[in-house]
Amino acid sequence: MNSWVRYSEDSDFSIYNIPFGIFSYNSSSPRIASMIGDQVIDLKAVAETGIFDKLNIDNSVWESNYLNAFIALGKEITNSVRLILQKELCNEDSILKTTDVFIPVQEVRLHMPVKVGDYTDFYSSIEHATNLGKLFRDPENALLPNWKHLPVGYHGRASSIVVSGTNIYRPKGQQKPADSDPIYGPCKLLDFELEMAYIIGKNSNLGDPISTKDADNYIFGKVLFNDWSARDIQKWEYVPLGPFLGKNFASSISPWVVTLEALEPFKVDGPVQEPEVLPYLQYDGTSNIDINLQVLIQPEGQEENIVSESNFKYMYWNMRQQLAHHTVNGCNVKVGDMMASGTISGKDEKSYGSMLEISQGGKKTLTLKDGTERKFINDNDYVILRGYAQKEGIRVGFGEVKTKVLAAK
Ligand code: CA
Predict the structure, then answer these.
(1) How far is the CA of 369 from the centre of ligand 1 (A)?
(2) Mean pLDDT of 124-153
(3) What is the count of structural domains for the chain?
């Protein structure tokens, strides 16, 4: 495919991508957009040219605060919108060439792409689970007995999921120093978690499990996901019911939802699962995706520092298995629900997806280009996640999620 829109070779938003998001411009209300190169495509303006007429989409769908109503039209419609856009952006005689549908991305504001109903966080990287098991439990038996039999997860908090560019405050809470009673104050061990999340694209019925075979029909697309963690608050509170205030103060996502269809060419086999999993978790076909991931720390006014380079293909449990497991008891899912992967670590230490692992629980120090040191995240640091898939000259990426940490209120 060759588009008449010019963009650089290393753009995440090539003609092969065509993601969906929500933007506003000047004083206009939020509406649905796509993106090519560094141009935002106003889909309400595109719809007015008539190129989507045969799909019979209600005009009100384009002028929404969230993608939910658009996603709920179903993949038959949303995939057609993407394919029609690709065709027009390659057609030298397209009506889009003569209309006012493009706006440079630096002139717009990007919003939360979906209204998140429910948020679930998995724990599906064997390297991450092993690293944490070694740090906090038994180096010889790092994985708990259930880990290779089911994709471990918990229900998170949807209200505090925010889009890239939204500052977060260092959380305050209870911590338990080793040598004193519990104290209350600003978290001292603030951390990122390098994750990706998928967005549910179709409602299921309460009582009806989704099979691994049918899972792709329920997955609309993916975003980058930084699952902020207050390690000291979490350590004291999590027994026996799991993550709570150490996790629910914020998670940050990238603004463009890259469709599962755009990621199809980058599918690869996942790790061999041994022991064999129960029948409801078995699957056919390639189910992992080769997506290069990066975490950077940028102190205020300073250069960016790469602190981790990982890959989504390392995941032990894939999205199909996660969704099959999530619903096997009859739990239903809804359009806009968000399912995060869990921290994505690789085998070598340059690919660890959290400061907890990079600093070995606070034992090792990272020196940044400006000479300052980190074991965890400081106030006024920016944390940036980037990700893209690339194969045979085709690049499909996510852009970034960039968040500034402000001092505790
Ligand atoms: Ca997490």
Answers:
(1) 28
(2) 95
(3) 2
Q: What is the mean pLDDT of residues 156-165?
A: 98
pLDDT one-digit tens code per residue, 214-241: 999 999 999 999 999 999 999 999 999 9
Same structural domain for residues 387 and 271? yes
Residue 74 has pLDDT above 90, yes or no: yes
Nearest to 316 by CA among 356, 343, 352, 279: 343
138 & 63 share domain: no
Residue 27 — very low, low, confident or very high, per pLDDT cuts 50/70/90?
confident
Separate counts of helices (H) and strands (E) for the chain: 8, 26
Q: How many CB atoms lie within 10 A of CB 308?
A: 24
Instruction: Give tens-digit pLDDT for 352-367.
Output: 999 999 999 999 999 9
Q: How many whole angstroms from 368 Cα to the centroid of ligand 1?
A: 25
Spacing, Cα 340 to ligand 1 middle (Å): 7
Q: Determine whether 111 is an active site residue.
A: no
With respect to residue 12, please indicate whether it lies within any of the assigned structural domains.
no
Q: What is the CATH number of the domain that holds 82?
A: 2.30.30.230
All residues with CB under 5 Å from ion ligand 1 = 121, 193, 227
Cα–ligand 1 centroid distance for 49 (angstroms): 43
Q: How many residues does the chain have?
A: 409
Q: Could you say which of 128, 149, 155, 326 is catalytic?
A: 128
In a domain, 2, yes or no: no
SS3 96: helix
In this structure, are 302 and 339 located in the same domain?
A: yes
User: DSSP labels for 273-336?
Assistant: -SSPPPGGG---S--EE--EEEEEEEETTS--EEEEEEEGGG-SS-HHHHHHHHHTTS----TT
Peptide bond into 275 cis (omega under 30): yes
